[in-house]
Task: structure prediction
Amino acid sequence: MSESTGPISSGEPPAEGASEVGDVPIAAEQSQPLGGGEPLGASPSPKKRRPRKILSGVFVVLFSISLLVTVLSVWSVRQVLNTNAFAGHVEVALKSPAVQTELSNYVAKEVVQVVQPEKIVAAHLPPKAKPLASPLASGFDTLVTKTTNKLVANPTFQQVVLTAVTKTHQAAVSLLEGKPAGNLQIHGNAVVLNTLPLIDKTIQALQTQTSLGKIIHAPSLTAPNGDPSAQLQQLSSKFGVSLPSDFGQIVVFRTDNLQQAQEALKKVRRLLVALLILTIVLFIAALLISVRRLRTLGQIGLGVAVVMVLAWAATRAATNLIAGHPKQPDARAAVSVVVNNFTGGLELLVGILAILGAVATILAFLFGSSKTAGRIRSRLARWWSEVPRALHWVGGEITTHVGGARILGLAVGLLVLVLIGFNWPGIITALVIEAIWQGAISLVLRRQETGQIPPPAPA
Result:
């Protein structure tokens, strides 16, 4: 008669509450929630887990929506109130031919109104030739347009425009924040951007760069950064014309309800802080009440990815709608450049957040307890075990063809530069990749010298 080495079963079920080690199933241990608040060693009943699952899901949805609203709000406020961001957009826009065309048309129109070419031409013609003043003046208009086209493409002129926009924006934001407005120009009840210095520079260019200098004799403004009223008076007296009081002034915003605007700005900033706190609280609450926190993290990542993809699609649709609104082709092209420049940062931001959310979802699934995740982890582990062998082979190939490997690195850097563009981000990215590539080759060669990588076999 053989003896049994296992526990003796009496055929009776164990007493309720028994805590023998052999009676605790592994599945129960795996389903134990992380910090779920249940007693140690006990699995929460389905009735207790269901409300927590539902509430955790609600928090996940609310967090995703709150995060989207917070991102859009912070981005919008930054675009409007941050002078560096605003000036950066203007600087990029000024380099666009479409925007330059619109700016040139505006300046040329204002210059013609100041100079009044038909009057000047008629004054220099003999009495019998005065009927030719109008046709000759139309040629003057064409010359002005050509001159302004060249002028607005000049970096010096663009810097003048950028400086004027930057100063106006800084002063306008200071006014909204209740601070001293500095040299902000207020015309009536409107905060304005003074373009008289730009108009004056164009007139000076006409005098020095064209034959019109023989008939136009007007000194430059005595105070280019001074009072617009004095500048307007000086231009009027130069050419003997009567100009409207708002000539050369572009309205930035109106001050009819300045106090209400200042209060609204304060409320918006408080709202941003509240949104940020709410988003953090919803994230923490979703995890704290969760029965399976790893799965909840995956759900949060999925929610973020979904709302950010929707935000990207909505931003792209809105951009196309606004850009296509102007009827004139030149105006449509200029608006398209400006709008795409302003919304490009938002599209990039929500795209990055969508990718991060998708990555979080994938990682949460891979580290989960499902059978599919387990099979994927096992397969990845087998592939990872082959990495040293692959790296060993790559190291051997590099030591055999050092020159070719370095030339290939240069080719990769140039390719990155072409794909991203010949700008500072592209140059920096290409240099970083090139440094990593060449550094890796040098590291492999040093490891070969120390014997960590065997020398290549003779051919």
Notes: The chain has three domains: 57-77+263-377, 82-256, 386-449.
